[in-house]
Amino acid sequence: MSHSRTLRVDYEKTTRVLCVVGSELNVNLNRTAPLSSRFFSVKCTSSVQYRINPPPQETSHLSPIPLSDNSVLVISMKHASQYENDSKLSVQYYGEKKDVLGRAVLHLTAVEISLDVDADRDGIVEHNNPDKGSWKWGPDGHGAILLVNCDSERTYLKKPDHEQTSITRVSDLKDMSVMVLRTKGPAKLPEGYKLTMHISQGDAESVRVFRTRSPGVMNNSISYTLFNAFVRDFPLVLSSEVLSQEVPYLGGEAEMNFYVEGLRFPDRDFDGLISINLSLLEPIGEALPETPIFTDKVMLRVAPWIMTPNTLQPLEVFVCSTSDNYTFLNGMRNLVAKSGYKLNICHEYMNRGDRWMQDELEFGYIDSPHQRFPVVLDSPRDGKLQNFPYEELLGPNFGYVTRTAENEEVSSLDSFGNLEVSPPVTVNGKKYPLGRIIIGVAFPTATKGRNMTKVVQEFLFAQKVQEPVALFSDWLLVGHVDEFMTFVPASDRKGFRLLLASPDAGYKLFRGLQNDGHGQAKMFDGLKDEEQITVDEILNDEILQSHNNYVQSCIDWNRDVLKRELGLDDDDIIDMPILFKLVEEMGSESRAVAYYPDMVNMIVLGKNLGIPKPFGPKVNGRCALEAEMCSLLEGLGLRCTFIDDFASYHKLLGEVHCGSNVRRQPFDFKWWNLEM
Amino acid sequence: MSHSRTLRVDYEKTTRVLCVVGSELNVNLNRTAPLSSRFFSVKCTSSVQYRINPPPQETSHLSPIPLSDNSVLVISMKHASQYENDSKLSVQYYGEKKDVLGRAVLHLTAVEISLDVDADRDGIVEHNNPDKGSWKWGPDGHGAILLVNCDSERTYLKKPDHEQTSITRVSDLKDMSVMVLRTKGPAKLPEGYKLTMHISQGDAESVRVFRTRSPGVMNNSISYTLFNAFVRDFPLVLSSEVLSQEVPYLGGEAEMNFYVEGLRFPDRDFDGLISINLSLLEPIGEALPETPIFTDKVMLRVAPWIMTPNTLQPLEVFVCSTSDNYTFLNGMRNLVAKSGYKLNICHEYMNRGDRWMQDELEFGYIDSPHQRFPVVLDSPRDGKLQNFPYEELLGPNFGYVTRTAENEEVSSLDSFGNLEVSPPVTVNGKKYPLGRIIIGVAFPTATKGRNMTKVVQEFLFAQKVQEPVALFSDWLLVGHVDEFMTFVPASDRKGFRLLLASPDAGYKLFRGLQNDGHGQAKMFDGLKDEEQITVDEILNDEILQSHNNYVQSCIDWNRDVLKRELGLDDDDIIDMPILFKLVEEMGSESRAVAYYPDMVNMIVLGKNLGIPKPFGPKVNGRCALEAEMCSLLEGLGLRCTFIDDFASYHKLLGEVHCGSNVRRQPFDFKWWNLEM
To answer: Taking every annotated instance into account, which residue ranges of this chain make up the domain Protein-arginine deiminase (PAD) central (chains A, B) (predicted)?
Structure first.
C-alpha cells in the first residue's frame, strides 16, 4: 500500500471520512485521546479492516488494549461504498480502572479511484497497472506512450493539430493517448470533496489533456469509444494555461475517457517524460485550500522521431519536375514503375526550380501502441522547395516537425543529404535495432568550417533511439555524407553493405583499363556538351591523383569512424570506383566535387538500385564503370539501373540521391523495446 | 586497442607516417597494389609490430603470402621513437610467378600521447587511465571531477573567479582540475604535424581550460606544481570563444599541465558532464584542413552544490545585529559561546535592518578529490540583506552562486527558511547518504497560491545528489518549512529525529494543565507589552481550536509525505506542543502564524538547541511549555536553551532559526560515491 494518510480523530465527535480503496488511514490514538486514557478498544462494521501498530501484546479478544505513546490505528477498506457513510468504526478509551472515558466515532465512505493508461503498451488501457507511475525501457519495461500530435486533420487552412487548443474532429482522438479515470462509489462524493487533475508547470509545455463530456462506458477497448463518433465535444482539461482542473465524479461504477496530446518532441531541455496526476481533494473550510488526500499518477513518454534506413521497404518515391530534367524524370519513372512503388512528382509551381528533394526534408515516423504515422522533418535549409513539406506532406496522419535556426548560420551541411541512418547494427555488444543516425560536420578540431546547426543536432541527439554518429563532410564542396556513402541491403553478413566512394578503387580500375590496352578509351563518351578525356590522360594527371589521395584520406577517416561506431569489419564495406576533384572557393579551403557522376549517390528501392550513369570509358561497347558497379553489387542480388542525371543534376553538383526522396515502411521493431 | 586508422600506402613511394603508441594502422594491401599482384611479403625493423588480416594460411616463413581482395596489414608500435623516421616497414608485391612487381616503403615515427586527469578520484593525475573517457557514479565508479570556480581569490574589487577569463593568482589553480598532457617521442613532431585541444560548442558554455606556459616536470603529484608559485603565466587555451587550439609538443619525455575551470553548476539544461579532447593533426596540403589522426578524450563532471543538515558539526553561526535585538543577540552569544563555536555578527550598515539571516542565503559546499570549499547560495529573495552573501561571504575559498528570477514573481516561499535538508536516510532500500533537500510549495493541485521560483527549484533538482522533496508550506502566512519542522541529532534509531509542530500536542498539554488545576495559569506571563491569556480561555476558544485542527491537518499532510519520502516511522517523529492562529489577508486565503513563539524554529548546534522562549503558562514557577520541550528532547541527550526572541523576532513573524544561519562541516561521504 503506497498511500498512507494521517487522520485526526477527536473523541466525543463523529468524524466523517472518505477512504480510497487501496490506501490506509493512520490514526495516532494517543494524540487526541481523553486525558489519563490508559486503554482503548476498537469496533467496526465488516466493511472496514484495521490493525494496530505496534501490535498489542496478546490480550483476550474483548479486553481493552493498553494505550502507548505511539499507538497507531491503521484503517483500510477493500470495497467501494454504495452509500455515503455506510461504514462505521469506533474507538473507546478507558482509564486506569478500565472506566470508559470517551468514544471517537468514524463514519466512513469508501471510493475506488484509478487513473489509467496503457502502461503495458498493448493498445488497451488496463486497470490500475502497478507500474503506471514510472517508465522503463525494454521488452520487460513499462510506461505509457504519447505522440506529438503533429499531423493535421484539417486539409483546408491546415496547421499541425497540436497548434490548436481544441479538438474539432473525432479522427484527431486517434493521435492522442487514451487515459481513463475509473471510479466506483456512491452516487456522489460527500459534500465538498472533489477530483482534480493536475500537471507540473514544466510538463505543461509538452502536453495537453482533453476529456470527453459524455460519461464513458464500461468497455476496455479504446476503439469502442473512438469510433462512436457521436462524441463531438471534448473540453480542454489541462494546458500551459491551466495546470489544475476539477474533473467530474460520475458516481456508481464509471469510466471517463481523457485524451492526452503531445506538444513537442524530446529536445535538449526535454527528456520526453511527463506525469499526469489525479487527486481527491478534501474541503477544509472557507478561504482555505482544499487538501489533496489521495493522488494517483501516470507517466508517459513522448515517442521519438525515427528515421528509416535504405534496408526498409520503400512506400513512395518523391522527385521534382523541372523545365530541364525530362531525361532524369523518365529514368526515375521507369525505375520506380519497375520496382512497383508509387512515384510522387513535385511540380514546378511548388518547387520553383529547386530540384533537391533529398535536401529539403527527411522522412521519419512516430510510433505508439495505439497509433503510428509518418512525420517529415523539415530542414532549416529552406530553399525554394521550402513550402513543400508543410503544404504538400502535412495532412491527416502525416506529421510535420521542423527546427528553426535562431542565432545560427544555416549552411549547406543543414541539407538532409547530410542526414542519413544506418541499418540496425550491434557495436561491441550494444544493440542499435533502429540503426544509428549519420550526420556530416567539420572536423571537431577545426577552428573554422561549416557545421550542421546546433538546433538540428540537438533535436537528433535528443531522440535517443538512433544515437547519432558525426562524420567529417566539410571536405566536400556541397558537404553531404550522401556524396561518399550509402547502405544497400544484403542477405548475408549484417544484412547490408556500406558502400564508400573510393578514388583508390577508381584509379585501380583505370590502371587496369590502361594495362589491358584501353588507355585511349574516353570518359564522358556520348555526352555532346562535355569535353572527353582518355584513361591515359586521367592517369597522367598528377594533380588529379594528389587531389584524390586527399579525398581517399578524408573518406578513410570516415571509414574508421564508421567501422568503430557501427561495429563494421572491412568485409562489410565495398569500395566504389569514384574519382573526385578539388575546386578552390574564393578565400576558402579547397573542397571536393565528383569528377564524374557520383555512383554512390544512388536511390535504393529494395533490391533495385538507381545509380547515376557514370559515362565512363567504354570497353567493347560497355561502360567499364557500369560493368564494375554491376560486378560489385549483383553478387549481393542487387539490380543496377543507371539513370542519366548528367546535365540536370551532376553538373549542378548533385546526383540521383540528392534529387529524390523515399518514404519507407517503419521498423517492425518497437522503439520502446530498446534496452537503454 | 580502440584507435584504428586506415592508412594509404602507394607502391614505388616512401610514405612517412606518424604512429601513436597504442593505436593501429590498417593498410588495405590490395587497394593500391600493382596490377596483377598475387602475393606480398612484409619486412620491418624490430621496433614495428604487424599482423595480417585475414591471417594467411600456413606458409613457410620466407615465402610470399597470397594477396586477397581484403588483405589488411595491421601495424602498431610499442615504444616512442627517439628520432624521426627511425623505424621502417616495407611491403613487396609479387606477380603470379612470384616475380617482384613493386615495393611500398613506410618510414615510421612513434609517439606516445596521453591526456590525463584524476579519473580514479584520488587527488593524483594517473597515467592513461583506461576509463578516463567516461564517467560512472559509485565507489567502483570512475571519471574526473571539476569545480565551478565560484570563489574569489581577489578580496578587493572581487568577483567570482570564473567571471574573469585569466588567472591572476597562483592560488586560483587549486580550484581547478589539473589535466596533464603526457608525450614521449622525438625532439619535435615531423613537419606540419601538431597537437590540438578541443571541446564542443555546448561544453564550452560550462568550462574553460588554461595551461602552464613553462614545461612541466616529471612528477605525479599535483601539489608539486601548484606550490611552485614561480609559474605566473597561464595562457587561456579553450573557452566559449576558442573551441580548438594548438598546444605545444615539448619533445622527449614531457608533461604539460592544464587547468580546467568549471563555469556553471548543473541545471535544467546541463547534466554536469563535459569532455575535453586532444587530437594529433596531420598536415594534408595548402588550403586543406589538417586531419585528426588520433584523439584522446577525458570526461569530467561538475561537482554539485551540496547542503548540510542539522546533524553535521557546526563551524560558524551568523546573526544580524539590529537596533532592537539586544536581548536576542545576548541569548545567541551565550549559546554559541557555550557550544564552542564562532559567532559572526552582521552589522547594521550591511543588514540595513533586515534580520532574517536564514532567509537571504543557504550555506553549502562543493567537493572534489583535490579541493573543497563552502559555497553560499544567494536567494532571489533580495531583502535588505541582499548584499551580504556577495560582499561579506564571497572570498578566497568561499564560493558564491545565485539564481535570478527572470519572468517569475518572487514570493516569500523563495526565502531559504523554506529550503532545508534532511540527514542521511534510506527509503525502501534506496540510500540518500547526503540526505534529501526539502522545500515548501503550494499544493500541486492548487489553482492559485505561492511557489518557490522555477529557477531555484530547477537548480536544486539538477544537483541530483540530494533529490528534493516538496512539502506544502503555502498554508503558512510566511510560508517556510522551518515554521513547522526541524531535524535534531539522536544517537539511536536513524541518527536523528524529525520534530514537527503539533497543535494536537499543544492542546493535549493545555488540557492536562487545566485538568491538574492550572486553568488560570497565564500564557505570555512576564511580557509587559503582551495581553495575557489563561489556559482556560485558550481551551474555551472554539475558533482557535478549529483553526488548529486545520493546521494539524496541513502538518499531517506533510508528515505523510516526509514519512514516505524519507522512509520514516512514527517513532522517528516527535510532536512539539505548538499552537497556531489563522490570519486573513486582504482578498486572499487565511494563513497561519504561530500563536506563541514557534519552538520548532530552533537553532541546532550539535547537542545544544537554541529554542525560542515560549512564555507559556507557569506551573510551580516553571514554564510548562519549556518543561515539556525539555522532557521530550533531553532524553535524546540534547540540551535546551530558551532564547527570548519575542519582541524582535516572534512579533515580526519569525523566530530563532529565521534569524540565524549556521555554516557546517561538510559530509565525510563523497558525493561521487553515490550509487545513481
So the answer is: 111-282
